[in-house]
Design goal:
Blueprint lengths: L1 H35 L21 H4 L8 E3 L2 E9 L4 E6 L4 H4 L4 E4 L7 E4 L18 E6 L4 E13 L3 H5 L5 E6 L5 E9 L1 H5 L2 H6 L4 H6 L28
Parallel strand pairs: 5-8
Antiparallel strand pairs: 1-2, 2-3, 2-6, 4-5, 6-7, 7-9, 8-9
Amino acid sequence: MTGGLLLIAAALFLTCYNLWDEQRASASAEEVLLEMDLNAKRREEPEPAAPGEAEIPDYLLDPGRDMPAVEVDGSRYIGVLEVPSLGLELPVMETWSYPNLRTAPCRYSGSAYQDSLIVAAHNYKTHFGRLKELKPGDEVRFTDTEGNVFRYVVAKLETLGKYDVEAMVSGGWTLTLFTCTYGGQSRVTVRCQRQTFDLLRYGSFLSAFGFCDHVTLHYQSALTFDDSNEPPFSGIENLPCHRCHF
């Protein structure tokens, strides 16, 4: 009898702790968002402009640069992740660790600038606990600390093994989100592709400004090809490499 009561008490304690921990994590993320205040920095959609009039973001000129981070309460954040269909807006920490995951989603590896960003988070309902509800075609947005907005669509959902790191980082996906299942034995994984408009929004400007193929091809690599295996556009010229260092 006593043993049964102890088990019930332990279960109640664990449930209460989990609820408290989730509320704490949600409040922590909201406080960080207020401190970061990226809303004012978000770039407006670019209007068509003549060569010489368009502002090209630094990440396009140098995709290999480190993603800039801002410090909030001693932790560093590289931007904000939004999943509109789940009502999520969350800061993303620069590096992942188990203590960091208790505050906010973390960059597991990669960079939004190189179309290889992987973000991990706990399965709190206010973090990534509802990832399995996403469907192909759902929108995901990431805004870096300079206000550059990267738009993605969900391509597929899959379940990976707990230690299947190679599968997690492979496949050439431009954005991956993942979290553990309850019990921690597998990983709910969402694969996303960057939206075509986002990839091409500065493409014509890059060619017109004289940037070489190394820069333009990087942002066209994720486009869908037709049956002829040719990109659905033309105009990349073999321009002299006088504006970049590739």
